[in-house]
Write a structure and sequence with these properties.
The chain has about 425 residues and is α/β, with parallel strands linked by helices. It contains 15 helices and twelve strands. Bound molecules: nicotinamide-adenine-dinucleotide (NAD).
């Protein structure tokens, strides 16, 4: 599973290597690994036929040294405490890396949403939020959407919390615009990915306008990354989704494909490009390979077929630790997920700030601030990579861990 093989797993070699490079004392390193609080709740709810069903939910609060816990809530039948803990930890490093005044948290409910009606899911969502109410708060812990949760679920969460505590849009992010959601949130992770790709091109001496890009996954992240990279002048030669891939060495028409995908929710049926499978897609010769779908997409079985100059990790943990080491020895750059896909949490933070200010920013304001944050973080990581001669993933952990450890030492006095 993703969490066990992901190279950005909190107990991965890259993490341990970063701790060593920083010379962090064992007692501090240990403190930073242990979550502050883990809550397991039973979530009973009534089904449409009148019967009571019950599922298990979790909220893990990993670390709040630099600010309130922050992280999504996912609904998935594979959710367990180990997975939620691992994801909560990653959020601590991601928010620290972007220098957002948050800590890290994550939640989940072990449920297959496809087995329930919308009204059943609403009752379950509201009941889960009531169950975690004692540990969340506008300045304490701010959930967000994740796998199988969306703006509608956030609306139920916000409503449930507001019924108890008074109108509180800042209790969750990823809300619809009508309820205090932020302009630019939907595109943020893909936009951040495109910005990071552009910055990588600059540092690695790749001509962006002549670059060839391959993207695995054409959902929220992959499709927006393609859209913005296309605007930067890159040639997107192949994309894929769960139905398979499309390849055109002269570049796909991304504007038309984006529209096709928006309407049909799949790239299937698009009338351009040669059909290829996901294995063929990953093995294409290109400048940038952007895995934006699954964890462990590049692994020990296919790493030798990779022929790109850089992998931009848009998904969480798409390159396993084993594959990352092999790619480092072949001088293929990997720009890690905690940097690449942090555009989403960054604009979530902007949403929270707008809610607290009770003042709405324009889309151009949001995008300008997002751009500034992504570039600054990229530069910080790149400078550590250069000075210490470590891969970008270790440098990212070093920046993030150092920030949390310094804040921790100051607070603990
Ligand atoms: P999504 O559900 O919108 O899209 C996922 C895409 O991957 C779809 O096109 C789907 O068809 C495709 N896919 C699924 N299985 C595949 C397979 N076997 N081969 C090829 N393609 C496959 O999800 P998303 O929001 O775009 O998230 C993608 C990744 O980015 C996930 O790893 C997610 O955790 C991560 N991420 C997303 C955000 C965000 O803001 N959406 C933020 C941080 C990280």
């Amino acid at each position: 599973m993703e969490r066990k093989s992901s190279s950005t797993n909190p107990t991965s070699m890259a993490y341990k290597n970063a701790i060593e490079q920083l010379g962090l004392k064992d007692n501090i390193a240990k403190t930073l690994e242990i979550p502050d609080r883990e809550l397991t709740v039973e979530v009973p709810f009534r089904k449409d036929n009148g019967e009571i069903d019950s599922v298990i939910g979790y909220r893990v609060q990993h670390n709040n040294t630099r600010g309130p816990f922050k992280g999504g809530i996912r609904f998935h039948h594979h959710v367990d405490i180990e997975e939620v803990r691992s994801l909560a930890t990653l959020m601590t490093w991601k928010t620290a890396l972007l220098d957002i005044p948050y800590g890290g948290g994550k939640g989940g409910v072990a449920v297959n949403p496809l087995n329930y009606t919308k009204t059943e899911l609403e009752r379950m969502s509201r009941r889960f939020f009531r169950a975690i109410d004692p540990v969340i708060g506008v300045n304490v812990d701010i959930p967000a959407p994740d796998v199988n949760t969306n703006a509608q679920v956030m609306s139920w969460f916000m409503d449930e919390y507001s019924q108890i505590h008074g109108y509180s849009p800042a209790i969750v992010t990823g809300k619809p615009l009508e309820l205090g959601g932020s302009e630019g949130r939907e595109a943020a992770t893909g936009k951040g990915t495109a910005i990071i790709t552009r910055e990588t091109a600059n540092k690695w001496g790749i001509n962006l306008k002549k670059s060839k890009v391959v993207i695995q996954g054409f959902g929220n992240v992959g499709s927006y990354a393609a859209k913005f990279l296309n605007e930067y002048g890159c040639k997107i030669i192949a994309v894929s989704d769960v139905s398979g891939g499309l390849y055109d060495p002269n570049g796909l028409n991304i504007n038309e494909l984006f529209e096709h995908n928006r309407i049909n929710k799949t790239i299937k049926g698009f009338n351009q490009g040669e059909k290829i499978n996901n294995d063929q897609l990953l093995a294409l010769e290109c400048d940038f390979l952007i895995p934006a779908a699954l964890g462990s997409a590049v692994n020990r079985n296919n790493v030798d077929s990779i022929k790109c100059k850089a992998i931009i990790e848009a998904a969480n943990g798409p390159v396993t630790g084993f594959a990352a080491d092999k790619l480092w020895s072949r001088k293929i750059a990997i720009i890690p997920d905690i940097l690449t896909n942090a555009g989403g949490v960054t604009v979530s933070y902007f949403e929270w700030v707008q809610n607290l200010q009770q003042f709405k920013w324009s889309e151009s304001d949001v995008n300008r601030k997002l751009e500034e944050k992504m570039i600054k973080s990229f530069e910080e990581v790149y400078s550590i990579k250069q000075s210490k001669n470590v891969p970008m993933r270790i440098a990212s952990f070093m920046v993030a861990i150092d920030r949390v450890a310094s804040a921790y030492s100051l607070r603990e006095g």
